[in-house]
Specification:
- The complex is a heterodimer of chains A (208) and B (476).
- Helices cover 33% and strands 16% of the residues of chain A.
- Chain A is built from nine helices and seven strands; from the N terminus they run E-H-H-E-H-E-H-E-H-E-E-E-H-H-H-H.
- Chain B is α/β, with parallel strands linked by helices.
- The C terminus of chain B is likely disordered.
- The chains are: A alpha/beta (208), B alpha/beta (476).
- The interface between A and B is large, with 63 and 89 residues.
Chain lengths: 208, 476
């Protein structure tokens, strides 16, 4: 993952609450074995009309949204399914940060692991951002701060580990792999547990 | 040791490295369920980094999401919705073969929806940590497991290390007491709960469902309840294992046997929230207050008793939902014409669900112009249902009896509704476009779905249950 330190851009606003992952990318586009190229399906049924033409009223289709890489959304963004195709689609579309007053748990986890900033701000900041589409804002990951025109500045919470990984481009799988010895010790200790995974029959066969 | 909740007991058993302010906990995963849609990119990561699957013996695969529910054609080829779907399945077959993972594929008599077969096989057990690249993994919490959905990057983490990096969530107790009224099912209970606490009411929390109503439920009902925890924003829902749980699991293919079984049950009995243990939040409900529920909007929290009138839209979002659903404001939804009825999904595709629907349909016909799909959750459910003759009940009524899979719940295998069609669905999500672009979804129980299929309009299921004519068998 590439380090993410600063994201600066005018915002595009989708003010609806509860924008779910089916709206971010409809399920019929999930029959892929790749993670690239999903941007063309991002918000597919919202962005295009029944004839496949761009819907001019959709915020991301407006000319002024062309170079926006920060999406401001209503509460509970990313609710619904666990599909990582949602952050993949947003990133491929060109969105680098999503700001809301609340981000659904699985979506936030998925987003941060891919370098898509998923940021929850307080209701005052959220309302200002919803009311000012196109505002040129700057997100500073290290300072956990958003600056907006007129000297506005808001801070946001970010899990310290996620922050560390974003700033340094740390790959979390590498971090986990470093725990190999501890995992092995744990498995040895747990071998006496009366639980069995799908291996039960195989183990019995091996024991026989 | 201080009093602990069920969640804390299961969590603590699986922590390899405690969380600190700077780092999350390393949590061991006992069972990793995988399917064709959210795993291929994870296997790609392993390949790119030269890593293997750490515990293929703790990994279980199935085909369910993009698989056709129609039988193969004369040429023996399965009618996939697209070449991409066919390839997705073939990639999982290859990945499982390469890494020695058990796959319940097309040839397996156990294939089915991942959240149906895990419990059926006895792979799902109390006290386990269970994950899957699917948000309805919360289903397995019905057995007292800590089970939650993960993204594909995390699927890769678990394949490679059998562990996840996790921050400890908060706890929410949902206590429900009393007897359910006739015609009210577990599906109505969970829709009632989500309507009350909201679609983000459980965000950041693991729910424990408790109370006398839960104690009286069978395992399938408990699975329906835990399944939809994610629709309240909670990643997991749990129910303490009890005699009902143990009786259900006993003698399942992967359940412990003999002395191992006795040891396991003795351990599982300790997996209860201690008296005096504290939850971060607690919400209480009376079972007597719960009616048969339907949804009226475009998320599962927009739900109400079937006899109620949808509240007038209060804001732009609710207006958008009302416009999308195209239901007359200020009027009851009872009597609204139905185009499609879907009985299936990881929420409501188990044998008792099918029996409930069949009980209403026995000796009756679905209304002209209504298309009804009944999709069993697994090959085992299909076999059992056919043994009881349920498939004939459905077919005689005019419904289609399909092969197991996710089908119209996620509508990515070709089973879908047309734009504008109204679907009465026993699945879990009524999001815009979920069952096909422009399709309108009303979530409900299998009883409400079946009763409405017969009348062709949204129907209070109690009318079908109360009317003695509906219970009489009419010779076919």
């Amino acid at each position: 993952m590439k380090p993410v330190r600063i994201v600066q851009s005018p915002t595009v606003v989708l003010a609806d609450d509860n924008i779910d992952t089916d709206r971010i990318i409809p399920a019929r586009f999930l029959t892929t074995i790749d993670r690239l190229g999903l941007g063309r399906h991002c918000f597919a049924d919202w962005r295009r009309d029944e004839n496949g033409r761009d819907n001019p009223d959709f915020a991301l289709n407006r000319p002024q949204a062309k170079d926006c890489s920060i999406l401001v959304a209503g509460r509970n963004f990313g609710c619904g399914s666990s599909r990582e195709h949602a952050p993949w689609a947003l990133l491929d579309y060109g969105i680098q940060a999503v700001i809301s007053s609340e981000i659904a748990d699985i979506f936030r986890n998925n987003a941060l692991k891919n370098g898509l900033l998923a940021i929850a701000v307080d209701s005052v900041a959220h309302q200002w951002l919803l009311d000012h589409p196109g505002a040129d804002i700057r997100i500073d990951v290290e300072r956990q701060a958003i600056t907006a025109p007129g000297g506005r500045r808001w801070t946001f919470e970010l899990d310290p580990f996620a922050r560390h990984c974003l700033l340094n481009g740390v790959d979390q799988l590498g971090f986990l792999l470093n725990h190999r010895a501890a995992i092995q010790r744990y498995e040895a200790r747990r071998a006496v547990f009366p639980q069995a995974g799908p291996d039960q029959q195989n183990r019995e066969a091996a024991d026989a | 040791m201080s009093a602990q909740t069920l969640f804390e007991k299961v969590w603590n058993r699986h922590v390899i490295s405690e969380q600190t302010p700077a780092t999350p906990a390393v949590l061991y995963i006992d069972l990793h369920l995988i399917h064709e849609v959210t795993s291929p990119q994870a296997f790609d990561v392993l390949r790119a980094r030269g890593l293997g699957v750490r515990r293929p013996d703790r990994t279980l695969a199935t085909l369910d999401h993009s698989t056709p529910t129609l039988a193969p054609g004369r040429d023996g080829r399965r009618p996939y919705a697209s070449q991409a779907a066919r390839e997705q399945v073939s990639v999982l077959e290859k990945n499982c073969k390469k890494h020695g993972i058990t796959l319940h594929g097309w040839d397996s008599p156990q294939r089915g929806i991942v959240h149906v077969i895990g419990p059926e096989l006895g792979a799902t057990q109390p006290g386990m940590t269970i994950v899957c690249g699917d948000s309805h993994t919360s289903t397995h919490g019905a057995f007292g497991a800590l089970a939650f959905g993960i993204g594909t990057t995390e699927v890769g983490h678990v394949l490679a290390t059998q562990c996840l990096l996790q921050r400890r969530p908060k706890t929410l107790a949902i206590r429900i007491d009393g007897d359910l009224q006739p015609g009210v099912t577990a599906k109505d209970v969970i829709l009632h709960v989500i309507a009350a606490i909201g679609v983000d009411g459980g965000t950041g929390h693991v729910i424990e469902y408790c109370g006398s109503t839960i104690d009286a439920m069978g395992m399938e009902e408990r699975m329906t309840l835990c399944n939809m925890s994610i629709e309240a924003g909670a990643r997991a829902g749990m129910i303490a294992p009890d005699e009902t749980t143990f009786a259900w699991l006993r003698d399942r293919p992967l359940a412990p046997r003999g002395a191992d079984w006795d040891r396991a049950v003795a351990d599982w009995r300790t997996l209860r929230t201690d008296p005096g243990a504290v939850f971060d939040r607690e919400v209480r409900f009376n079972a007597a207050d719960i009616q048969p529920v339907i949804t009226y909007g475009t998320h599962p929290g927009m739900a109400m008793p079937v006899t109620s009138i949808a509240p007038p839209p209060q804001n732009a979002l609710e207006q958008r939902a009302a416009d999308y659903m195209n239901c007359a404001p200020g009027q009851s939804m009872l009597g609204t014409p139905v185009d499609v009825v879907f009985v299936g999904s990881c929420t409501n595709s188990r044998l008792p669900d099918l029996r409930q629907a069949a009980r209403i349909l026995r000796g009756r016909k679905i209304a002209p112009g209504v298309r009804m799909l009944v999709v069993p959750g697994s090959e085992s459910v299909r076999r059992e249902a056919e043994k009881e003759g349920l498939h004939r009940v459905f077919q005689s009524a005019g419904a289609e009896w399909r092969l197991p899979g996710c089908s119209m719940c996620i509508a990515m295998n070709g089973d879908m509704a047309a734009p504008g069609e109204l679907v009465l669905s026993t699945s879990n999500r009524n999001f815009e476009g979920r069952q096909g672009k422009g399709a309108r979804t009303v979530l409900c129980s299998p009883i409400t779905a079946a009763a409405s299929a017969v009348t062709g309009v949204i129907t209070d299921p109690r009318s079908a249950l109360e009317n003695p004519q509906h219970q009489k068998e009419i010779p076919a």
